Amino acid sequence: MVSGVREFEEDQDDDVRSLAARLVSGEETALEAVYDRWSALVHTYALRALGDVHDAEDVTQQVFVAAWRSRHTLTPTPGALPSWLLGIARHKVADVRASRARDAGRIAAAASLPEARDVAEQSADEDVTERLVVRQAVEELPDPRRTIMFLAFWEGCSHTEIAEAVGLPLGTVKSHVRRGLISLHQQLEGVRRESR
Amino acid sequence: MSHVDLDVLADLALDPTDAPEDVREHVASCPDCTALLASLGDVRRLAGAEPLVSAPAGLRDRVLAEARSTPQSTDRPADDTADRPPPPVPLVPSRARRRRIPAWAAGLAAVVTLLAGLGLGRLTAGETSPAPEERATVVAATALTSLDSDAPRGTAEAVRDDGAVTLRVSARELGDAIGFHEVWLINVDGTRMVSLGVLASGDTGEFQVPRGVLEDGYRIVDISVEPHDGDPTHSGVSLARGELA
Fold first, then answer.
1. Where does the Anti-sigma K factor RskA C-terminal domain lie (chain B) (predicted)?
2. Angle between helices B31-46 and A114-140 (to 10 degrees)
3. In A, which residues are within 8 Å of B191 by CB distance?
4. How far is the CA of A55 from the CAs of A29, A121, B66, in angstroms?
5. Residues B226 and B157 in one domain
6. CB distance A142 to A8 below 8 Å
7. Domain encompassing residue B154
8. Would you say residue B142 lies in a domain?
9. Which of A110, B8, B168, B190 is in Cβ range 3.0-4.6 Å of B109 for a Cys bridge?
10. Which of B149, B225, B136 has the alpha carbon at shortest distance from B184?
11. Number of domains in chain B
12. Same domain, B94 and B173
């Protein structure tokens, strides 16, 4: 009934897969494309996790350089790229935190309660990461699905309101919201699998 | 009824009242569908984050410059091997398990080759003049590290005993990704690899090494995590690596 709704998400998957494959095989243009697509995600994650503009910038740089150097470890599957980048980012953020702890001479304090500290930080991190992944995923949706998802999830509009706003039949809007939810869910699950 | 279609579950997550009775009954009684419904609901809960913050304008150039400054010697072979499919060179005749190496691994192996230099010398020395009185000799060893962070992941050593070579793997912190851990030897020529077996219990194991393969350049020890999908080839996900030297 709603033609074209499924097709473009499969195209998206193929894009990511071929981008990953090009990166693995060492094409510099693939690194550029990967940077353009995911640097905001990585940078925002680092910014939220570290709360410092300069550290966030450093981490972002380290992540993409490390991604390039260890590109052979990437499996070219859809969804693997963002979770892989975030996985590297998590290591780099942990390094910065460890170095801060050393600098501040807080090693003893940190070491006395390592698990409690880690768990609190990890769960806050996870939530931040997942929110950003969902945001990133919705940004990447092609229109009109992107607009529809923003209206539905960010603005809290009803399907009827959205149908009026974008001038599409109600059934088409519903279908976009449903497929959009599934697509965001896949992205999120990809990252969750990676971080387990 | 069987599991609920993802589309139907998505509708249910969007509007709990918008589902046929039998669907709701099934979901209520099925842990899998309940979990899937909950994680679809998570997406709704997690939506609403503020816009992403772009990285500063100049950073892109710095990243690309630093990536390019990766020593040329490590980049060029990766490109070369990636451009053409690796030749299917037989490792041992016929039936033995052997595989072509995927391009991602070929690149790294080629990189490692260039950095290996000394390793070959030591390996060859250990092999050509084994001390006759020592029955088991460590002929090569390596530390294992994570690929993305260089974090330590244990050790591996090749032990020669009366001509037979055994690889002793003692890994650690391999993580808890779902799947089993398989040990491979990757050839430094970047085109071949051989599976030695799985780490069946814990993170340590001993594996018989096919005769002559170390001398043939199969010196990169690799531990992968393999999903239970029946596919005998390398999953592409390496947890630890090191080159025997």
1. 107-236
2. 80
3. none
4. 26, 17, 17
5. yes
6. yes
7. 62-243
8. yes
9. B190
10. B225
11. 2
12. yes
Degrees, nearest 5: CA angle B136-B140-B145: 130
Note whether residue B54 is domain-resident.
no
Of A39, A69, A177, the CB nearest to B70: A69
- Let me know whether B30 and B113 are in one domain: no
CATH code assigned at B223: 2.60.40
- What tokens does A172 get? 């088409």
Long-range contacts of A52-57 (CB under 8 A, 24+ apart): A55/A96, A57/B55, A57/B56, A57/B59
Q: Which residue of chain B is at minimal alpha-carbon distance from A71? A: B104
**Are residues B130 and B23 part of one domain?**
no
> Mapping DSSP to helix (H, G, I), strand (E, B) and coil, where does residue B157 land?
strand
Q: Which residue of B has its CA nearest to A189?
A: B39
**N- to C-terminal Cα separation, chain B:** 59
CA distances from B122 to B143, B160, B215, B229, B245 (A): 16, 14, 11, 39, 6
Interchain proximity A74–B44, CB inside 8 Å: no
- Residue A134 region by backbone torsions, left for phi larger than 0, else alpha for psi between -120 and 50, else beta: alpha
User: Between A17 and A175, where is the model more confident?
Assistant: A175
Give a yes or no: residue B218 inside a domain: yes
What average pLDDT values come out for chain B (245 residues) when binned by 10 residues?
A: 80 82 84 88 85 90 88 41 37 38 54 47 43 66 85 89 87 84 83 82 86 84 85 81 88
- Which residues in chain A have Cβ-Cβ distances shorter than 8 Å to B103? 21, 24-25
ipTM of the complex: 0.76
For residues B81 and B146, membership in a common domain is answered with yes
Q: Hey, are the CB atoms on B107 and A181 less than 8 Å from each other? A: no
- Residue B217 confidence (pLDDT): 85
Asked if residue B57 belongs to a domain, the reply is no
Same domain as B198, residue B98: yes
Task: Kindly state whether residues B146 and B31 are assigned to the same domain.
Answer: no
Matching residue, tokens 């995927």: B102
d(CA B104, CA B200): 26
Which chain A residue lies closest to B54 (C-alpha atoms)? A40
